[in-house]
C-alpha cells in the first residue's frame, strides 16, 4: 500500500504530495507519521492511501512510524483542508496544522499519566506484624499511610517517605501500582452551578423551531437585540442536536467571553462540553482536543480556532457575535471563519446559525437577498426596556469650562450609581494612559523607531510603548529635540480613566480590563468573576467588555470617546462605531434594574449615533447600504489588497511594479469589473522596520472567482525577491 503524504515543512517548493511505501501495521488517512525526507526524518500527514503509485515503487521510501495510534485529522477535516487550500490559495501544510494542537508537532505535548500505589487486597486485612517486621519502620509508615488513604500518587509517596522502603514493598508484592490518564482541566476553579430550568419565550421558540426544522444545510442570521435571549436559543438548538446523537460547535469572538459561555453550557451539559482557545496551557488544550476526538465531549466552545474541533457528525454550528472582525484570520493562514463554518456545515448537512444584535452589513445583505434566512428577536426577555441613551456634546462641555475627561452628565450619573450600590462599566477603546506625548514648545512627538506610529504612554510602568511591534522606551522627562520639559499628553486611554476615577471614588474598588491586565492565564476569568461577585463597582475596559457579558447590577454604561472608531480612513468606520456603541450600551439594565447610557462625542449629530440611540438597526442598515452601493464598497463589491513589505524599498519595487503592470492589463480585459485599481504606500508606512506598499482594487459584477485566481497567479509569478513578504487579502479588516 502507498501513502500520500504532505510533509510538515512550510515551503512552497515542497507543498505537494509525496508517495511513501507503508510498512505492515494499521495506517489510515489523517494519521501523523515520521518519514525520511532528504537527509533527515521529518513529520508528515497521510492524506490518502492507495494501492499503487505512478512512480517506480522500488525507489519509494517507507514510512518510518506512526506518531499517534489514531488519525489526528478526521476525513471531514481533509475535505475542509482541500476547500481552504483552493479557496484561499494556502499551502496545504499550513491548513493541516490548524486541525491539531500546535504542541503536538515535534511531540511537545503528550497525554499525561499519573501512577498511583495501593495495598494489594491480599494483604489488606492482615495484621501489619505478620507482613512487615517491626525493624522496617519505613515500610510500616508507608503501609499505615496507604491503609488510611486507600491509594496515593507514587510521586507524593516517593517525596514523603523512603524510596527504598517503597521499592521493597513493591518487590514483596505488598504494594501494587496502577497508571491513569489525567485530564488537565481548564477553568477547574470555576464554580459548578446547579442547572437552571429555562422556559423559552414564544419568540425564542419560533426561532429555535425554524433552525431545528432546517432538515439540512442552511445558513440562518439571528438578529436579536441585546438581552433578547439569543444564548438560550443556542442552547435549545444544541440540546436538540445532542439528543439526536450529534455534536455541536459554538464560537464566540473574544477569549474573555469564553469562560462565561463555558459556565452556562457546563450547567446544562456537564462534561460533554470542551473549551478550545489560545489562552489554555499546552496540556489543557491537548486534553480538551482529545476529549472531542474520542467523543468524551460532544460540544466544542471557543474562539475562531474552535471551528476546527475534531468532532464527528456535527449537528449544528453557531457563531455568536457574528459581526466581530476577530472571526477573520489576518495572519497566515488567512481565512474567513464564516466561509469555513459554512463548508463544514455543508459537509455535515447541518444548519449554520449566525447571531448578533448588530449583524455585519455583509450578513444582513445576504439575508436580504435570500442567501441567509433572517430570524429576529426584537425585544428583550420579559419585555424589559433597552437602556436610555444620552448623547453628550463634548464641544459644549469644553465651552462651558469642563476640561475633565468626564462630562458633567457622566460624572453625576457615576456618583448616583455608586451611591445606590449599583455597578457601572466605562468603555474606552484605547489602552495605556495617553495615545501620544508631545513637546508643547517645538511640537516633537515621540515615535517608534521601528514603526511609523506614535508611542503610547503607559503610566503603570512609566514607559512609552508601540502597539504595533511591542517596542518599549523610557518616558520622556524633557524633549529630546529642544530640551523643554513641557510635555503634553494625547488622547486618554484606560489607565488615565482609571486614575481619574480613583481620584473621584477613593473608597471603592475599580477594575480595569485591557491587554495589559489580561496577559496572565485565566486573567479574563478572574476579572470578570470579581466584577460579577460585586467585588468592584466600576469596570473600565476596551472592546473586551463590549459584548456578551451579563451583569445584573450594571445600571450605567459610559462611552468615553465614541468617536475613536468613527473617523478611521476605512469604509467600515460607521458600521464598526454603530456596532460597538450598541454592544456596549447593551450591557446596561439587563436585569430588573433600568439601565442608562452616557455617550460622549465631538460629533453628536452623526447619523450613527442617531440610529444607535433609537436602537434602529434597520434604519442604520438602509442608510449605510445606500452609501456602500453608491460608492461600490462591500457588500456591493469585493476589495482585494496585495500587501508588500520589506526592509528596503527598492526590493519591494522589483515585485510590485511588474505585478501592478500585469493587473492593469487584466483590468483592461475585464474593464467593467474593476471599480478601482491603484498602487500606493500603506497608511502606516512602516512596521517592525519594514516598509509597506499595497495594490488595492475593488471588483464588482460577475467573474470574481476568475479575477481572484488571476490575481493570485500574477502574484506568484512576479514574486521575485526573497526579501519581500507578499500576500493577498480579500475584504481586509484593517486597511491601515
3D structure, described in words:
The protein has five domains: 2-106, GIY-YIG endonuclease; 112-182, no CATH class; 202-381, P-loop containing nucleotide triphosphate hydrolases (Rossmann fold), CATH 3.40.50; 388-433 and 492-628, P-loop containing nucleotide triphosphate hydrolases (Rossmann fold, 3-Layer(aba) Sandwich); 638-730, Ribosomal protein S10 (Alpha-Beta Plaits, 2-Layer Sandwich). It is built from 22 helices and 32 strands. Helix 17 (523-532) links the parallel strand 25 and strand 26. Helix 1 crosses helix 12 (337-348) and helix 18 packs parallel to helix 19. The longest helix is centred in the C-terminal third of the chain and has 21 residues, at 649-669. The chain is globular, with a radius of gyration of 30 Å. The protein starts with a strand and ends in a 6-residue tail after the last strand.
